[in-house]
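Worked example

This section walks through a single chain of length 252. The input is the sequence exactly as stored; nothing has been trimmed or padded.
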Amino acid sequence: MGAVGPQQPGTDLEPEPADVLRAVVELSDDAIFLCDTEGRVTTWGATAERLLGWPSDDVVFRTLDILCPEHLQAEVSSVLAAVLAGDRIEHLELEVLRLDGLPVPVSFSFCPMEGPGGGVTGVVVVARDVTEQRLTQATLAQMEDRLEEGETLAHVGSWMWDLRTGAVQWSAEFHRIHGVDPLDFDGTLESHVGLIHVDDRRSVLMAMDESVASGRPLEARYRIVRPDAAVRTMHVRAQPSCVSAPLKIRQT
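Given that input, the structure is written out below as tokens.
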């Protein structure tokens, strides 16, 4: 009985690079295609058809700028020229106009292909539909607006202290409570603590350090001195996390 050993490189069972590349393109959630040195699309798969809304027969051998509205076509041509000159461009967001007239926000990445002699022979293009990302960003913006409105109505401000960087971020209402314009706050813990009444400053810092060290919630009452010399009493409740100490501040 003969023995069968490991398959050696170069045999019929070894996949061809072109087959591997074709499989990657077909399985990718992004549209991956090629353009030649004239900016004309030379490959166009099923994923590109689905994401970008253009069938292969309407795209192949036509310049890439046909995908975009007229006011963006010059920009696309300029980008392709830069890539063909050797530049690499990543995550450029453009609007694609599908054949059915629906505009789609798309993130493009371009990479020049080099031939055996070192010259650029074409461009690899990766296109990603970022519609869901845009919707998520819009939803987050709406949530932030509602949070800001809620803080204003409740007269409650919040601030975040990032222990990794030392940066401090104030909400709009927290700025208003302290009477400090956002442009006048440098986002440091020193500036934040500097507004605490000098007689309360030490105890507040000790309470903050203890909360961070123990992981237990912080609750404290202290006074602040606004730039207009007005004194306000603050009630703070905070819950530290493993990477930062987000604090919620309520004025009393």
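What to look for: Strands lie at 31-35, 89-97, 103-114, 120-129, 156-161, 168-170, 218-225, 231-238, 245-251.
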